[in-house]
């Protein structure tokens, strides 16, 4: 039987495909831009007749039909590997929960820890001449997720970019149970968190000054990493490389400015390596069939051993709060889940262990709430309930618009002094008093 014949044999409608789902099943809903569309709409019609469905997914970028039914918590639970804005809203509605992970370990969870998946439904790129459906910009943990699934349903989207890699970036038709052809919607787009502010630009300038020619970059999502990317694109830096968890629009700008060659990478030379990508159409068009870009599983991209083997590795990520001990929370504020652990700790550790490498965790010195009240992001201790994403022993460079603090090798009083020096001036005196109360302040400091 030819691949085309097998395709036609397995082709069905979304409404027919979701009939395989039964109460008590464990479902996989793809990851980021591969979250299903037609299958989601079809399942929403069935969901009122189902109960105790456990669904895993993450970084959902558009409203899901299954969440629009009456009392979704009575029928399913959404378990997120990484929270986005929609998923934070669903927490308050009672059917969404964060699954704490070390992202680099996620493939091994599927292979070694989690119970088997009953049904996988996800978007893929059209089948190629060799019978493979490409995962688009979401290699991540997808291959591992599919290995033990009882039923695999793929939703073909002609707009899904075909992202090249070399391993674990697609699935063969022989391992697919059902094929659904959706309505080919545009791939979900993710902005960069708005235009860079003056604070973002001030932080970016401090970091770009620390990047040497030939460095290998990892950028997180958000205003500050994007501001760094913009400055790099306008700089005189050359022969940069990319090895990152998430591929974002900033990398496209840097590449098109001629700054990326990958010529000095110790591994995957000349290739931009990433676990998943999300951004604007500009990004998806750039990744599509681009042999320079390497889509790879997250247990490879986020491996500390892999990261640390690359010389001059520069890791740039955001944080919510940092306390005077150097503990970094990048995923929650108190008990309010904002994001997820992702791979930040892996890159913080891997970059430091790299020859010539540096890890930068950036944040604005303050934030202002909806009431117009301003608070310091550098705290005496993290808020009660805040999750420590990066432990104090692993923190390297902390950066605000007021400067940069290298915490490696510093004792508690030295850390307190360095962090207060980059806090907003309006909060420094109070932070000194707090440090004195905590016995981490020398009177000779000031």
UniProtKB/TrEMBL annotation:
It comes from Anaerostipes hadrus. Coenzyme A-transferase that converts butyryl-CoA to butyrate. This is Butyryl-CoA:acetate CoA-transferase. The keyword Hydrolase applies. The active site is at 245 (5-glutamyl coenzyme a thioester intermediate). Residues 5-183 form the Acetyl-CoA hydrolase/transferase N-terminal domain. Keywords: Fatty acid metabolism, Hydrolase, Lipid metabolism, Transferase. It is an enzyme of class 2 (transferase). Pathway: Lipid metabolism; butanoate metabolism. Its EC number is 2.8.3.-.
């Amino acid at each position: 039987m030819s691949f085309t014949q097998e395709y036609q044999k397995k082709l069905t409608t979304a409404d027919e495909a979701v009939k395989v789902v039964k109460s008590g099943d464990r479902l996989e809903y793809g990851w980021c831009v591969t979250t299903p569309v037609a299958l989601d709409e079809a399942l929403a019609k069935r969901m009122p007749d189902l109960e105790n469905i456990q669904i895993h997914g993450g970084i959902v970028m558009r409203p899901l039909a299954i969440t629009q039914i009456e009392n979704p918590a009575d029928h399913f639970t959404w378990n997120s590997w990484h929270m986005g804005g929609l998923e934070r809203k669903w927490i308050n509605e009672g059917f969404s929960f964060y699954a704490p992970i070390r992202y680099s370990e996620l493939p091994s969870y599927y292979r070694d820890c989690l119970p088997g998946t009953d049904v996988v439904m996800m978007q893929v790129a059209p089948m190629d001449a060799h019978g493979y459906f490409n995962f688009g910009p979401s290699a991540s943990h997808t291959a591992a997720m599919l290995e033990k699934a009882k039923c695999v349903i793929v939703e073909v989207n002609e707009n899904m970019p075909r992202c090249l890699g070399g391993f674990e970036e697609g699935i063969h038709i022989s391992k697919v149970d059902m094929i659904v052809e959706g309505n080919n919607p545009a791939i979900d787009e993710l902005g960069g968190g708005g235009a860079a502010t003056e604070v973002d630009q001030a932080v970016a300038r401090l970091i770009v000054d620390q990047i040497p020619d030939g460095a290998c970059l990892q950028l997180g999502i958000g205003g500050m990493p994007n501001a760094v990317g913009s400055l790099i694109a306008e700089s005189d830096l050359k022969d940069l490389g990319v090895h990152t968890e998430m591929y974002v629009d900033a990398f496209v700008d840097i590449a098109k400015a001629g700054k990326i060659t990958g010529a000095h990478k110790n591994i995957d030379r000349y290739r931009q390596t990433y676990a998943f990508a999300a951004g604007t159409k500009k990004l998806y068009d750039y990744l599509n069939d681009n042999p320079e870009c390497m889509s790879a599983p997250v247990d490879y991209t986020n491996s500390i051993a892999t990261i640390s083997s690359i010389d001059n590795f520069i890791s740039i990520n955001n944080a919510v709060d940092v306390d005077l001990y150097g503990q970094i929370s990048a995923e929650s504020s108190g008990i309010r889940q904002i994001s997820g652990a992702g791979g930040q700790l892996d890159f913080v550790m891997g970059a430091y262990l790299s020859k010539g490498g540096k890890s930068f965790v950036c944040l604005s010195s303050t934030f202002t709430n909806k009431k117009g009240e301003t608070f310091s992001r550098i705290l005496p201790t993290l808020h009660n309930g805040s999750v420590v994403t990066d432990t104090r022993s692993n923190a390297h460079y902390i950066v605000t618009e007021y400067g940069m603090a290298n915490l490696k090798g510093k004792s508690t009083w030295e850390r307190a002094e360095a962090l207060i020096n980059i806090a907003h001036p309006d909060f420094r005196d109070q932070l000194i008093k707090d440090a004195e109360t905590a016995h981490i302040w020398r009177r000779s400091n000031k």
